Structure formats: C-alpha cells, structure tokens
C-alpha cells in the first residue's frame, strides 16, 4: 500500500467514523486523535469498527491485534491496514 | 473514617495514610443508624410510601439492604421477593429464603422462567449463540467473559453436554443481542417488584453497591430502576462489614459476587470489572482520592502501568455508562 492508498484508506475510515459514531456532529477527527480518549468510540464501538474493517477491506482482525496502536486512531488504523494488506512495516 | 466523597479528595490527600484496606474501615453501627434514619425519611417523607420491596438474590448486597430496611422500618413493612428463572443457581433461592427467614420478613417466590420464555428471552439469546456455535442447543451452558485490554472485547463461552468448553470472540450484533436478551431477566424482575410495591403502596429498593453504581454495572430499567438505593455509596468491602455487623448468616457473609444471569457460573470480574472486588474497591477509592497509580500498584500487587490501566478502565466505564444514569433528555421549548 503506497502513501496514496494509505490516505484513501484513512479517508474511508474517517468517513465511517464520522457517519456511524458522530452522525455528522462534532469537529473533524485528527489523524492521531485517540478515538477512545476523545469519547468517539467505546468498547461496543470498537466491535463495530472491526466489523467495518473486516467487511470493507476483507481482512480478519485477530484477538491479539485488538490493541490501541492498531485501532485507536486514523493513523493507527492506516498503519495496521498497511501491514495487514501488504505486509508493510 | 468519614464516608468519602470525591469533592473531599484534594483536602484529604495530603493528610491521609497509605493506601490499604484500612481506608475502607467504617463504624458499622453508626453507618447502619445513619442509613436507617435516611431510609425512614425517604420512604415516609419523600416517597410517601408505607414500606419497601426488596428482591433477594441470595447475594450480599440485597441481603444487607433487606436487613437495613428491617432495622429502619420494622419487619412488617418489608416484603422480600425471590425471582428465580431457569438459569438461576439453586443456591440463590436457598440463600434468599435463608435471609428472609433470618429477618422474619414476609417473602414470595415467583419463578419468572415462563414469563421469560413467553417474551423471547431464551429464544433471542440462543439464536445469537447459535450464529457463533451452531451446535449449541438443549443441555448446553453459556456465559460471556471480558477479554483483552486496554481495548476490551467479549468472548462467548459455551459448554456442551459432554463437558467440552468452547470460547470465541463475539461481533457486535451477537454481543448486543445476547446482552439485551438476558437483560429481560432484570427488567421482568423489576416489573414484578413494582407490581407488588404498587399493590402494597410500598417503594422499591435498589441494591447496587458503590462499585456497581459508579461503574454502571446494572441494566437500565432493570436492576438499575428503584425508588431508593441505600448502599450505593458503600464500597463492597464496607457492605461485607455491614453484613457481619447486622448478623446476617455466615454463608451470606462469605458469598462471592456472581451475576447469576448466565447458565455457566460467572464472577462479576469475569464479565465486567478489571479486578476482583477487593482490589476494585481500593482502585476506586484511590481514584476518588487522587492516589497516584504507583501507590495503587503497591496496594494491589500490580505494576504502575497496570495500575494506570485500571484507573483508565474505571474512567472509561464511567464515560461509557453515563447515559444509564441520565433522566430522559428533553428538547426545551424555544
């Protein structure tokens, strides 16, 4: 996944988070902003986010991948998907 | 020790002693008297009712609430309800009866299994379980356990009639359906409690302790619904101390908290809390009194990082369950 693809992925995740959790309410989410610390996503919300990622990007989120580094910010999700889809570091 | 309040945290932090179980010590006689005075005042002068209904689960909290109510109002003004269903442990009804007998209060046993069957509690739950474990059916047992951290998720655990135990992470639809189906249990119980309360012109007692109340460990319009919650300010450790002071049966005083909601045995710390209740008490007290995570770590035998995570988990649960405490939100007139 090149830089452009990562940006596209982040854009899709951002749109999902804005639509599903904020219903268009609230300011734009920063790339490194913690979903949980900013009260955008709670524990059930994480499950919904995972369902979105699994369906949209055809991946399987493993139990040991459910960590904040992978799922708690747009940049984190972007990096996680890059590794997952293309084995990038 | 004066009963703590978050607002006192700053002023007491400089002078308090080291964090250990002794911070939870209370003068049980004085506290029972204080609760009793307030309970009488609330029932008579605020709620204008003639007595109280207490659902007895056989656990420590409801038993202490019933004992406090008897002490405050007299045994003639307290009705105990035992409301088992098909997944209840046999010990629950036995212990509930034991408490009612000890307190010499009128009590009724009403099995809510048929009501839950009719309303679809078991059907909705089992349908969601079978989406994960298709073989699940008659004779199987189930429960939900918390996993992961700091991002938490929930695993479904099932046990086959042959004893084989299987466990798998749940997706949101299955998790939400199983929890909402099992919440019928708390909501049907509350419906029956209010029937008897209305019939007798009584109030309904809610039995959460401080951990449960603070952390939102209750079902909205289920066990979270009540007219008065007399021990919601008491840490679990303090509830156990009151149980002994009120001379409740030893088996009650030693009972470990369970949810008694799923067919497999399930401790509260398996399903909801990050730690066993003794450590959770210290953590909640510590957070309320601005105790540094490093000091909590020493008190509960954890690393500072783990203690920080416990504090973070408490804060996160407060946020996530804030809506459970809210009254219905209104749109104000322009």
Which structural class is indicated by helix and strand composition of chain A? mainly alpha
Helix content of chain B: 40-55%
Q: How large is the radius of gyration of chain B?
A: 20 Å
- Number of discrete helical segments of chain B: 15
The major pleated sheet of chain A works out as: none
Label the CATH architecture of the largest domain in chain B.
Answer: 3-Layer(aba) Sandwich
Q: Give the distance, in angstroms, between the N- and C-terminal Cα atoms of chain A.
A: 11 Å
Kindly state the percentage of residues in helix of chain A: 55-70%
How many separate domains make up the residues of chain B? 2
Q: How do the strands line up in the largest sheet of chain B?
A: 3-2-1-7
List the quaternary state of the chains: heterodimer
Q: How many helix segments of chain A?
A: 4
Element order, helices and strands of chain B? HHEHEHEHHEEEHEHHHHHHHH
Any low-confidence stretches of chain B, pLDDT <50, length ≥5?
1-13
Description:
The complex is a heterodimer of chains A (89) and B (334). Chain A is built from 4 helices and no strands. With 89 residues, chain A is mostly helical. In chain A, helix 1 (3-20) packs across helix 4 (74-86). The radius of gyration of chain A is 12 Å and the shape is globular. In chain B, helix 4 (90-103) links the parallel strand 2 and strand 3 (106-109). Chain B has 15 helices and 7 strands. The model of chain B is unreliable at 1-13 (pLDDT under 50). Chain B is an alpha/beta fold. Chain B folds into 2 domains: 24-273, Rossmann fold (3-Layer(aba) Sandwich), CATH 3.40.50.620; 275-324. Classes of the chains: A mainly alpha (89), B alpha/beta (334). Chain A binds chain B through residues 36, 39, 42-44, 46-48, 50-51, 63, 66-68, 71-72, and chain B through 147-148, 150-153, 169-172, 175-176, 316, 319-320.
